[in-house]
Amino acid sequence: MVVLGACATWSLVTAAVHDGRPEGVLLAVLAVTAGYAAGRVSGVLVPVAAPCAAALAGITLAVVLPQTGAGPETAAPLGHAGATAAVLVLSAGAACCAARATDVSGLRAALHGLAAVAAVTGAVLGSATAAALCGLVLLCSLGAGQVTHRGRVLAGLGVGAAGVAALTWAVAADALPGGLTGSLAGRLTPRRIDLWQDALRLARGDALLGVGPGRFGELSATAAGSPLPDGRPHSAPLQMAAEQGVVGVLLLAAAFGWMLFALWRSPRPTPVVVAAGAALAGLAAVAAVGNALSFTTVSVGAGLLAGLATARPLAAAPTPPGPTSITRPGRGA
Length: 333
Hints:
Layout: H1 2-18, H2 23-45, H3 49-64, E1 75-76, E2 79-80, H4 83-101, H5 105-124, H6 128-143, H7 150-172, H8 178-188, H9 190-205, H10 216-219, H11 221-224, H12 236-264, H13 270-288, H14 296-309
Antiparallel strand pairs: 1-2
Helix pairs in contact: 1-2, 1-12, 2-14, 3-4, 3-5, 4-5, 4-6, 4-13, 4-14, 5-6, 6-13, 7-9, 7-12, 7-13, 9-12, 12-13, 13-14
């Protein structure tokens, strides 16, 4: 709560300095908080049914409302780095958490099959990113039974997500070798890279406070010249750097780090923790190259999955005392 409160407070500070619009950040913080609270409660009461229902809801939402995914500007050969991919990855993670929370082998296989359905759904919808990440989450869940040190696995997942964010930053700064930069430019689309470069330029202009939340669209020439402008650079770390400065980036990293720490300390079984960690790390990777976190549905889903995986069982009720035997005093010696 301290980390989320700091995120909300800093958005208000930067908005006051630069006349920004912090409503989007505040809504995202509220959505994550609500989802996390719901996950903690439902994870205690119905640890199998709750994540199963969440997975079914996510897959249904991705199929019925495909427009919640990335639009033409955010489509990339890597897949739709947007809400559809994020929702499907979270759905696969929820299905795997449900599978690892049950001891019934047949039900576990069916729930793992539901995660496979999420991967197939991503492929059918044209999101290679969703299909690949859902498959990765499923593989992590299937192999989680052999994990003895959850901290090492979670650290590896965190490093992988940070690596994607670092690669995004390197592309924006044109710090990669020429051949690699050209290859990525062809896959990510030039417009997306132009948006990233605009975000980095704005971040360098005011490294501490940024330009204010919600103001990227006004100050980015690429966004202004877009036929379908949405005012975002399609990268969560770069958007935070541009709009809220280095402090905003550190707070975003702290929120992700807190999530990994909470999973490490979770009383839930290690396979459940590993499955949730893989899905949330996949979401972080998607958010580094897209605008997934701009959708309330994704924020709620991320909080819900984190809450399900960190739910703490209720303390066992004290056993009522049984009938006491009455010792009768012995008769005289």
